[in-house]
Amino acid sequence: AIAQAVLAPMQGTAWAGRRVLITAGPTYEDLDPVRYLGNRSSGRMGYAVAAAAAAQGAEVTLVSGPVTLATPPGVRRIDVRSAEAMHAAVLDALPGQHVFIATAAVADFRPRERQASKIKKQAGSGLALDLVQNPDILADVAARQPRPFVVGFAAETDDVERYARDKLVRKKLDMIAANRVGTDDCGFDSDRNALAVLWHDGGAQVDMADKATVARRLLELILARLPDGA
Amino acid sequence: AIAQAVLAPMQGTAWAGRRVLITAGPTYEDLDPVRYLGNRSSGRMGYAVAAAAAAQGAEVTLVSGPVTLATPPGVRRIDVRSAEAMHAAVLDALPGQHVFIATAAVADFRPRERQASKIKKQAGSGLALDLVQNPDILADVAARQPRPFVVGFAAETDDVERYARDKLVRKKLDMIAANRVGTDDCGFDSDRNALAVLWHDGGAQVDMADKATVARRLLELILARLPDGA
């Protein structure tokens, strides 16, 4: 009875009949079988959004990079490692989705070549690593016709809102949720977060709270802006 | 009573009075507050060795890279992130140690500079990452006088024993434990492992088993080769 009383406010049917595609976690770009280029991301924010959307009746597909989190109840999860694999999984799952929420910290760059065997170091020498850009998942989803309502995330260390506003416009997103990373009490390694949520003609602040609460507040902001019939 | 019967064979006093310093897990080399260069390592093999040594009476210090493992009972754990931090923690903890077991997958290279702010990508361009070599923890410990009994690990994808024998001689180790990585059933992401253990005038094979069993067998091989009084 206590568990039900606590859970009750999170459950609902506000998202019933809506299909939501979410990316979460980091991507890892392998240099060789041992070494990789990674992003710091626990995946917790994306998993919290997936859990909250499913609890409110949405049909949720979660494309996840390498994390150590349990799959939220009722969520269909697809595991990937690299940005290219995430890009392919997202485009594959995209048809029929009403909303796309990209919380993953996707690597911008990957090594030009992945070595099949472990790279051996040479005594005394350095190494120049040749990186190429990864596909842009957000921009590619936003360019599709028909397209879902597209929500991006921006994790920035400086000028958070300026970069986020620029990304909203440049990648033709419908909404962007920006948070500052690199501080102690907020962002990837924390259970708490705060967001500045921006859309083309407005914005809202989601105050610092546990990520489950922040996820529900973000979903409310999205739901209020979905076009009729979506 | 059942738990005691199962645990009994693992407990013992064979290592009582001996101090053992162990490294475990990966190191992460930060490019900026979000991106890092990582090694694939769960830390499980090193944590199993630490747990087994402590269960047999050793005084164990565990210098650990970023992992999601619980500290084994009775083990003193020091958390680090980068190879340079691991190098400093190991040299700091070294005086008085009888045995040094280096299971960590230490990054050979780090970015020449760590950026305080997130690196922004330029449209259409790649990135050349300038890497420099990290300090060699194993070789630096082996060069100390007096020095502990030094055990290295070699995770290789090819020619495992040849590379391991070469590393044993080149870094002036007392023993090296080699395992093949990049296969499905063995190595960093697995609960099981098999080792080829080499020393200067001999060697032994530790057959595929759970990592706790492999750890105990490795400790037996080390104990049999410790100099009197160590």
Write the layout of secondary structure elements.
The structure is a homodimer of 230-residue chains.
Chain A: H1 2-7, E1 19-24, E2 28-30, E3 35-39, H2 44-55, E4 59-64, E5 76-79, H3 83-93, E6 99-102, E7 109-111, E8 127-133, H4 137-142, E9 149-156, H5 160-170, E10 175-180, E11 192-199, E12 202-210, H6 211-225
Parallel strand pairs in A: 1-4, 1-6, 4-5, 6-9, 9-10
Antiparallel strand pairs in A: 2-3, 7-8, 10-11, 11-12
Helix pairs in contact in A: 2-6
What does this 3D model show about the protein?
Two copies of one chain form a homodimer. In chain A, α2 packs across α6. With 230 residues, chain A is an alpha/beta fold. Chain A is built from six helices and twelve strands. About 3% of the residues of chain A have low confidence. The two termini of chain A are 35 Å apart. In chain A, a hairpin with a 4-residue loop joins β2 and β3. The first copy, chain A, is globular and about 60 Å long. The relative contact order of chain A is 0.16. In chain A, the strands form three sheets. An eight-stranded mixed sheet of chain A has the order 5-4-1-6-9-10-11-12, sandwiched between helices. Chains A and B meet through β3 and β8 of A and β3 and β8 of B. β8 of chain A pairs antiparallel with β8 of chain B.
